[in-house]
Each structure stands twice: as structure tokens, then as C-alpha cells.
Amino acid sequence: MNLITVIPARGGSKSIPFKNIQLLNGKPLIAYTIEYSKKCASVSHTVVSTDSKKIAEIAKEHGAEVPFLRPAEISGDEAQDFPVIQHALNELEFFYQKQIDAIVWLRPTSPLRPENLIERAVELLDLHPQCTSIRSMVKSNEHPYRQWVAIGDFIEGFVGDINEPYNLPRQKLPRVLFQSGDIELVRRETIINGSMSGGKISPLIVKREDMLDIDHVDDLRNADLKLKSDNK
User: Fold this and answer.
1) Residue 134 near residue 124 (C-beta atoms within 8 A)
2) Would you place residue 78 in the very low, low, confident or very high pLDDT band (cuts 50, 70, 90)?
3) Could you tell me the pTM of the whole model?
4) Distance between alpha carbon 98 and the CA centroid of its chain, in Å?
5) What is the pLDDT of residue 17?
6) How many CA atoms lie within 13 A of 200 on its CB side?
7) By the 8 A CB rule, do 92 and 188 touch?
8) CATH number assigned to the domain covering 3-140+176-230
9) What's the rounded Cα separation, in Å, for the pair 45 and 5?
């Protein structure tokens, strides 16, 4: 398979300005994801999709390729993943003059991934030919059947198509998973058909204790402490 990693890293961030290049244990946050991708022999190119020249330069310094800058219209606060991955696929196939089989989607906000996630995702994709994409998951701590929606002065069950799901015994609750954000692996056909994930998503299970998403300053501090602790 011709696999290309795409690391989405726009310049704007309300929670932490220029979050993707903030220093984590002395190294830009995005560098951890670039290095992770480049360790995988199956990945032919590690590419950063960004609208920022500053991020582009730092990404290139750490070994990534930045063959294009992302347009402003798909780089705002409300930009969703699909137009970004669709734009990357089109730009990269034109740039490299070669068809891509699948895109490895690695968010820079998950810098401390478990080892071999890309390899495990590729194995899953090979094992399930009908699979449209792979997405890393952890077991959900809070079951949706036990959750409620506030409507004015009252509440009603979040799941509305089952009679009183919140009263079901624990043994009858279906297994539910929560996306960890560590990795997605998306087939070319899935993107061509207008989706980021498609209708047949295979879960790649990771441990909850390995899950780390940098969204706020406290998350950055916690990641820094974890790295220093692991390196002792």
C-alpha cells in the first residue's frame, strides 16, 4: 500500500496560541508526531497540512514535508476534518504524481502515542477488506444509556429510541467506545466517496491510560510531567 501520513496543524488556536508548536519538554509539540510517523517503514511520506508558514518551517526542520499551504477557508475554528483530508489527498496525488491507497491521519495534539499504532492499523485494514477506515478507541467510562438531556426545567434520556434505557441492568448495556484521537487510517475510496470515515469503521483499541489529548495549558503541563517521569 502507498500510505502517506497527514498531520493537520492549523495556526489558529483559541485555547493555546500556536498550540501545535508549543514546546513540550524542550521540543515543539508537532515534532513528536512527525517523528512517530517517520519511524514507520510503511509510510512513504510524512506531510503536514497547515495554513501557517511558521508551522511549515518548524515542521520541515523536524523532517516533515510541506508541499502546499492549506487554504484559509478550510483552516478556521469551525473547519471540519473532511475538507482538510480531501484537500490533502488531491494536492498530494498531484504533487507526487502517484495514487495514494490510504491516509494516516495523526493529530499533533496526541504526542505520546503507544508504539506501532500505524502498523496495527494497517494490519486491521488488511484483515478487513470491507473496512472503510480505522479509528483508535478506548472503552467509554460513561455509558450513553445513562446520560440525560436538559430540556427547560426537565430532563429526558439521551437515547430516545429505547424504552427507559437508563433503567437497564449493567449486564444488558451494549459495549460502547470513545475515540481517543491517536490515529485514523482512511482508505482513498472513502475520501473519494465524500467521507472521513465511511460506513464500516474498525476500532483500534488502545488503553485509556495511554490516551492524551493536548487541548489546554494544563494538558501541556501534564504531558511535560509524564515525559520527564518516563525519562527518569
Assistant:
1) yes
2) confident
3) 0.91
4) 24
5) 78
6) 10
7) no
8) 3.90.550.10
9) 6
pLDDT at 231: 65
Residue 172 grid coordinates? 444488558
Burial classification of residue 212, based on how many CB atoms lie within 10 Å of its CB (0-12 exposed, 13-18 middle, 19 or more buried): middle
Express each pLDDT in 84-143 by its tens digit. 999 999 999 999 999 999 999 999 999 999 999 999 999 999 999 999 999 999 999 899
Q: What are the extents of the domains in the chain? A: 3-140+176-230
- CA quadruple 129, 132, 134, 140: dihedral positive or negative? negative
| Chain mean position to CA 197 | 12
